[in-house]
Give the backbone structure.
Amino acid sequence: MSETTKIEVNGVNPVPDSERYGKPSDLFPVWFSWNISIFGITLGIYVFGLGLSVWQAIAAGVIGYFLSCSFVGILAVGSVRTGLPTLVQSRFAFGYHGNKIPTFFGYVANMGWKVSLLSMATTTLADLVTKLAPAFAKADGYPTDACILVSFLVILVLTVFGAVYGHQLIIKLEKGIAWVTGLMTLAYLFFFIPQINFSALNTVETGNWGTFVGAIVLSMTMVGLGFLNYGGDYSRYLPRKTQAGGVILWTTCGIAVPVSVLLILGVMLSVGNPELLERANREPLAALTGILPFWFYVPFSIVIIVSLVSAGMTGIYSSGLALMAMGAPLKRWQSTVLNALIIAFGTFYLLFVSDSFVAPFQSFLAAISVIMGSWGAIEMVDLLRQKRLGWDVRMALPYGEGGRNYRWTALLSLAVASLIGLGTITSSDPYIAKVVSFLLTEEMEKSVFATSNMGLAVAMIVGAALYYVLTFVLKCEVAPVLHEEKR
């Protein structure tokens, strides 16, 4: 059996130096391959829909993408130094048991994203089957329930297979997927670009400054902040002394470059096309494949499916690590299978039970992003302390074994930041709306500040600043504890 097809045994333990390999540029295809999906064009449509000019929407999207993705790269450096997954390394800041709080929310956010991805992969495969075999379509042209169910099972098996076999298989597959998806997306542009009305690009009115800033925050939420909690899960296999700049650069570019290009195209396509924006809110992928001739629609749909399965594969893998980081007494492959089952139930609900998912799902992710964005900001500040303490992996252990059970400085900073963030964002979902915007007046709830989730940026700044003051100004160290018999 080759190294690629062996089931990975590393879980939340530090990856031994003897098992480290590769170079920073190897991170690029991992991130690139599952951010090259045409769903990135839809994200550009959403940013433009806030009420900006073409050039404002492009600038806001690109700034938001690169800024938030650089945070992912910074956190990935810590995992290179320790060999630990991102959500395990944050025990250094929050304590062995205290870290279970952000880990839980990171786990939930990750699982929610994968439900969305696998449901899109399933419907794309089902649509493809009905185009190739019309007998599987209902009278209205949509796939039958049986067709959707079989497509769902196929997608689930492929995703779980890659996630169980782990890091080496994922890295191997991602390199090929990155090239194929990149080339096919470039080919798609030959059909896409003629749909853009270039003469109308300068006819859209300029939006105000508040809307522009809000668009930056929205862009951060849609891409980079969603990857914060597992940015280092793949970089931890790099050699310990790998240059930090290379890790940050290739991680940032692997995520931000493809989605930025796709965002630009989505913004341009939106001009003078309000019907597209309306359909994209309901069917983000079907809104963009309708322009394709059949001979190209078939292979391109396969590329979409492969890209979404790739994203689901890496996400389930990281969810397994998150579950183990919470203390679940499972091996890595067992936690991966458990996560796959949970995601399967969620995807099944979305496909066969729920009438609507987009609005509540977006609201849910916005609320989760407040907590995880604040966590990420605190963790980035704590990397300074971790470096000063020599990246000692024993800090991820309980009190007396080299770490702490709880570090009140980080937990207090997270609590304050989360309350501010949740209190200053809004939600279109009536249930989530009950736990957010409690710091806003009725008038403020309608402001761009609230509707664009700018409270998220405020929360991140507050969390990082408060933790920095407590740790480095007031010297509230909450130092790790190692009993003599453990030395």
Q: What stands out?
A: The first helix runs from residue 27 to 33. DSSP finds 19 helices and two strands in the chain.
